[in-house]
Amino acid sequence: MRKAAGSANRLPAVDTPLRVGLVGAGPWAKLIHAPGLADHPGTKLAAVWTRRPEPAKELADNYGAVAAGSFDELLDQVDAVAFAVPPSVQAELGVQAARAGKHLILEKPIAPDLASAERLADAVAEAGVASLVVLTLRFAAITREWLTDIAALGEWRGGTARWLSGALLGGVYEGSQWRTDEGALADIGPHAFDLLDAALGEITSVLAAHVTEDDLWQVLFEHDGGATSTATLSLRLPIDPTIVELSVYGEHGYRSLGRKPGSALESYVALLDDFAAMAASQTTEHPCDVRRGLHIQRLIHQARTLANAE
């Protein structure tokens, strides 16, 4: 299998739009997935399915797509599936979609637990389909430039990530049951862990993890090459706007990165650039493919295990 160049180096252009089915019709599906898939020249929002037919029909009608009557019906009409559902649902249906030969756009975390993530990654590998995980910060232009610059310098000794938000205290995601149950580690942890890993080298172990009763996480990592890093995460602090900061430090001083407000859809468009080109060229490897999701799932599992053992 050929390896994708990654989001820093664009893959070839696509001649025929990829027919994509969207599973889910919640806030993230409406704000990001549906408009991104419908407007991108390399994709077509062909069908929408949810377990409740009314939201699926409403979203599908807005974009001239078909509201599928079942997941099997959706699979019959598309080349790829984009998921905007809780991890437990995604892990189950993602295996089915991969076995049906459909390319996958997966939300993070890719599954509710490590065993489910392994099954999903195995199914994708066995089917030989393309996959990308929606790590929106990783696909942002400002992030790509920052990672390129720090990679050229090298010799970084450590780093830190801070993601502090009141998202579960109010707003569109307050009613998200899986976010409420799984908390900051599962929801925003993947973004922070992915960027620390990309900046400082592969995270080889979780050295320590602590969580408070109100879901404030502190996680300490060791990286290949000897660097260490920390991640501080919360979705239940009265902070608005959300603070997202990543930094590295070492022989070349200190370099920091922040999140550009309102950049999620822009990042999703960049993800779709790669996804459509991967499918067209039968490329299955990418820095943010399902194997990346599995690596992050292992880190979540290790952090939760350590915190529960305290």
UniProtKB/TrEMBL annotation:
SUPFAM superfamilies recorded: Glyceraldehyde-3-phosphate dehydrogenase-like, C-terminal domain, NAD(P)-binding Rossmann-fold domains
Gene3D superfamilies, sorted: Dihydrodipicolinate Reductase, domain 2 (3.30.360.10), NAD(P)-binding Rossmann-like Domain (3.40.50.720)
Gfo/Idh/MocA-like oxidoreductase N-terminal domain residues: 18-130
Sorted UniProt keywords: Oxidoreductase
InterPro entries hit by this protein: Gfo/Idh/MocA-like_OxRdtase_N, Gfo/Idh/MocA_oxidrdct_glycsds, GFO_IDH_MocA-like_dom, NAD(P)-bd_dom_sf
Occurrences of domain GFO/IDH/MocA-like oxidoreductase (ranges): 152-253
Keyword Transmembrane annotated: no
Domain of life: Bacteria
MF terms (GO), sorted A to Z: nucleotide binding; oxidoreductase activity
Protein name: Predicted dehydrogenase
